[in-house]
From TrEMBL:
It is found in: Cell membrane. The chain crosses the membrane at residues 29-48, 91-111, 193-210, 222-240, 246-264, 276-298, 304-324, 336-359, 365-388. The lineage of its organism: Bacteria, Pseudomonadati, Pseudomonadota, Gammaproteobacteria, Pseudomonadales. Its main location: membrane. GO terms for cellular component: plasma membrane. It is a multi-pass membrane protein. This is Sodium:proton antiporter.
Amino acid sequence: MYQNLALLAAFLLTYSLFAGRFESRLLNGPLMFMLAGLLLGPAFLGVLQLRIDREGLKFLAELTLAIVLFSDAANADLKVLRANEGLPLRLLMIGLPLTIAGGWLVGVWLFPQVPPLELAILATLLAPTDAALGKAVVSNPQVPASVREGLNVESGLNDGICVPVLLMFLALLVEEQTRSPISLALELVIEELGIGALIGITLTLIAWRLQRYSVKHQWQTPVWSQLTLPGLAILCFATAQTLGGSGFIAAFVGGLLASFLFTEQKHQMLKASEEFASLLSVITWVVFGALVIPWAWSSLTLNIWLYSVLSLTMIRILPVLISLVGTRFDFETRLFIGWFGPRGLASIVFAVMILAYPLQASRTLVATAVCTVLLSVLLHGLSANPWVARLASRDH
């Protein structure tokens, strides 16, 4: 255990010291962490011996996603949704449903042996984009502000939007033989989504009122106030899960409400939450490289590779081009927006989640998700800086 901890700490320390150098050379954090896990893990050097079972992996992935969902939602500037010709709104309301539909259609073509409902699950778990993987784009001032803000808001909200869709398909899968889809859908909305949303709203309102009372009496200290929102994120998630609701919905809704309520101190209070999410993300990416990639590698077929390539290109880019019809963006900028929809943490967590369900083709689905994320980390990481530089030189 201590050897594993020492290796992780040494790698994290080294990367934190030279991150600027690495990221200016076509590399990014998730790519480096994933490669470190792969090289140090059992598949190659074998010095990183992670003894984590499926439940442990599921807990790590779910907790990481819950905090990321809360932080992304709390950071999201909802006023930007309608700005820049409604770019984020177009990507979320038009592009996202078309991406799920396109992923399902391509799945029907490439995986005819997989049940249609399971293909809908695959399309949904690969639809959300990852803000951390796209950081080289969304944080680069050379990228037009409208594009940066649009992609940032999209990646911050689309994983939260995909959660109820995924839960819907999973519920239909479990009880499709015994219940009508309409009654099942209503029950899901009332139970998991309703309980999750109610808990997220209630706990965030309570935390906000307590925080205001504390500020009024000058009881807060700068150090401890940073833990308010991380604590709230975990509380929303764990309480909803305990009471039979969706912890992800609770965290996402709580984050959206926190964005509205904690306006004055929001960014200061979110720093610790973002750092906590970053640390958990590092561990998740290392585990992904060390354990998940080797587990899925033997299942990768030509059709899985083809689906992964199409998921990152046609399945993503065509819906984006359709959603941007009538806007002032030129064709290359539209292609740029379509290409930079990297898949990462949310897809990994969703893939781990579905292992707990009785899917006929669970190995195929998880292997496809792993393959897509692996390709995304490599291709988006390597292409971000060169394409940004090209756009900047073109605009000048």
